[in-house]
Write a structure and sequence with these properties.
Pfam family, one: Epimerase
Protein name: TIGR01777 family oxidoreductase
CATH architecture: 3-Layer(aba) Sandwich
InterPro entries: DUF1731, Epimerase_deHydtase, NAD(P)-bd_dom_sf, SDR39U1
Shape: globular
Order of helices and strands: EHEEHEHEHEEHEEHEEHHHHH
Bound molecules: NADP nicotinamide-adenine-dinucleotide phosphate
Number of helices: 11
Oligomer: single chain
Helix content: 25-40%
Number of strands: 11
Largest sheet: 7 strands, parallel
Family: Belongs to the NAD(P)-dependent epimerase/dehydratase family. SDR39U1 subfamily.
Structural class: alpha/beta
CATH superfamily: NAD(P)-binding Rossmann-like Domain
Distance between the termini: 30 Å
CATH topology: Rossmann fold
Organism: Micromonospora zhanjiangensis
Radius of gyration: 19 Å
Strand content: 5-15%
Amino acid sequence: MKVVIPGGTGQIGRILDRTLTAEGHDVVLLTRSPRGERQVHWDGRTLGDWIGHVDGSDVVINLAGRSVSCRYTAENLEAMMSSRVESARVVGEAIAEAARPPRVWLQMSTATIYAHRFDAANDEYDGLIGGGEHGVPGYWAYSVEIAKNWEAAQERAATPGTRKVALRAAMVMSPDRGGVFDVLSWLARLGLGGPVAGGEQYVSWIHERDFTRAIRFLIERDDVAGAVNLAAPHPLPQREFMRELRSAWRMPLGLPATGWMAELGAFVIRSDTELLRKSRRVTPGRLTDAGFTFLHPRWGTAAADLTARRRRG
Ligand SMILES: NC(=O)c1ccc[n+]([C@@H]2O[C@H](COP(=O)([O-])OP(=O)(O)OC[C@H]3O[C@@H](n4cnc5c(N)ncnc54)[C@H](OP(=O)(O)O)[C@@H]3O)[C@@H](O)[C@H]2O)c1
């Protein structure tokens, strides 16, 4: 297959690129700063020569968007919104113009679209879309708004020859440097990986191997379109999530962090506490119903696999 990955130079792009390339597929990455012959220039907003790669491709997987690992200032929130909506819009325009459009367009979205909740899990059928929760910071609703507009940009695209899937992905766990597993492991190994703000909030996650297997599954399954949750079937409270991670690293100590400590820590690492404090309880309803099975359904064994691979380098 020829697979075009706009925004493919980041954490998830690297995972998909190495897996699909190892399987013998022809992978092209669209980036604002190309390096090497498989990387092609685009600006994420306007049509250009890059559309020649979309025309005749089999699959487009759009991952582009300003990183969410930053302070949620008004300026950064605006960049998070516009980079996602604009890139999805222009990918849709490129597919609409193609003489030989790809058969499927997988558009990244996020599990953050669902409500902050503890009582039940959100699947695609009767999960609650967020934005109306009480007692949470107002800007959390903006993250939901970004996700909704991101998906709407794909839905609006007039691409009748191309199946469209929105990937409501949870945190993708891989042993790579700089990824979310790396950051959480660093905290755990320093003895700082205890409960944050009580630790009752749920963490949804997916092992990289299940993520890439799910992508392949969605490419092949012509009967699946629309929003699909990419999350392991057993999300767990943050307190247990970090306990399992510490155990995988054989670190007995995990200092707790109160809400204000999390705020301070997030300020120091220039990130935002929504990433730590929002309860993301998301399950893979449609994938499971379509017959997908997970290699790593439970966090304990997934964390053991990731730490072992990380130790081996
Ligand atoms: N990582 C996760 O666990 C996770 C989970 C759920 C959803 N997501 C979403 O999935 C997408 C990919 O995640 P990731 O972790 O690979 O992100 P990442 O490492 O931040 O990579 C995103 C890529 O988007 C491109 N980009 C950044 N700002 C842009 C802009 N203004 N216009 C166009 N392109 C821009 C960058 O490519 P260039 O600089 O090369 O152009 C970058 O490599 C993101 O949208 C993220 O929000 C990630």
